[in-house]
Design a protein that fits this description.
The chain has one domain. The protein is globular. Helix 1 packs across helix 5. Strands 1-2 form a two-stranded antiparallel sheet. By secondary structure, the protein is mainly alpha-helical. The protein contains eight helices and two strands.
């Protein structure tokens, strides 16, 4: 059985796992970051863990580009640039900007995320650079309203994500540990604007790519980050009695 025959089944399994995972994550919060606690699981340095988790997205997608049959089409290159804009930063810049002292991450968390990002970059990269029709992402696609709207959404989400992360980084002075209430920007309305930014990003990418793998990734982003945002919001309210009552977890005024 060739790769083209196996590929749709991997995609179906990827979607099915997202459907199963979404409700589970409302009851089970991944044990890293503020939810880490005193885990008995084997752990690695959190900075290394972030690199392990996120680097397959940057490197795997780029490998699909290098090995692809349609590398030179303008829209495919544009989608590559959008993808790498997020993941080069997430894998190789973000981990070194974190503050708060030396932390660890459970090995199973890093390992499961490594598998996810590897599969996700494969599904999206192989579709865009090999399996999509040869005419799907030519120069004309750059002027299509779906691409233009999707790229605009992606860049808006990226900007929101970056600003929200910068607010969190600046909460602590060098050497400080512990947590504080973030203020400014979209933190006025929600507890997790960084997660909201990522959801907007990958929803925009799904629109710009107009493909089932990109839509599956957007669904996975929501399935993963929405329950975690709810957990973050609950944690803030429990830890800080003066936490702003008007804030929602993820969507202003709604959720």
């Amino acid at each position: 059985m060739g790769e083209e025959a196996v590929y749709p089944w991997i995609l179906r399994g990827f979607v099915a796992l997202a459907i199963v995972t979404f409700p589970v994550l409302f009851f089970v919060t991944a044990p890293y970051g503020r939810h880490g606690g005193a885990s008995r699981l084997p752990s690695i340095d959190a900075t290394l863990g972030w690199i392990v988790m996120e680097s397959p997205s940057a490197l795997g997608f780029f490998a699909c580009f290098l090995l692809g049959d349609h590398r030179g089409d303008p829209a495919r290159i544009a989608l590559l640039l959008l993808w790498e804009l997020h993941y080069v930063h997430r894998a190789f810049v973000f981990p070194f900007r974190r503050r708060g002292g030396s932390r660890t991450m459970p090995v199973p968390v890093a390992a499961s995320a490594f598998v996810f990002t590897s599969v996700n970059s494969y599904l999206n990269g192989r579709w865009i650079f090999t399996f999509a029709p040869a005419t799907a992402y030519g120069a004309a696609w750059l002027g299509d309203p779906r691409f233009l709207a999707g790229a605009a959404l992606f860049l808006a989400g990226f900007a929101l994500n970056q600003h929200a992360d910068r607010v969190l980084f600046n909460l602590r002075k060098p050497g400080e540990t512990g947590y504080k209430i973030p203020v400014g920007g979209f933190y006025r309305w929600v507890s997790c604007p960084n997660y909201l930014g990522e959801i907007v990003e990958w929803s925009g990418f799904a629109l710009a790519a107009w493909s089932w793998p990109a839509l599956a990734f957007a669904a996975w982003t929501i399935a993963n980050l929405l329950p975690r945002a709810v957990s973050h919001h609950r944690w803030y309210r429990e830890k800080f009695p003066d936490y702003p009552a008007e804030r929602r977890a993820l969507i202003p005024y709604l959720l």
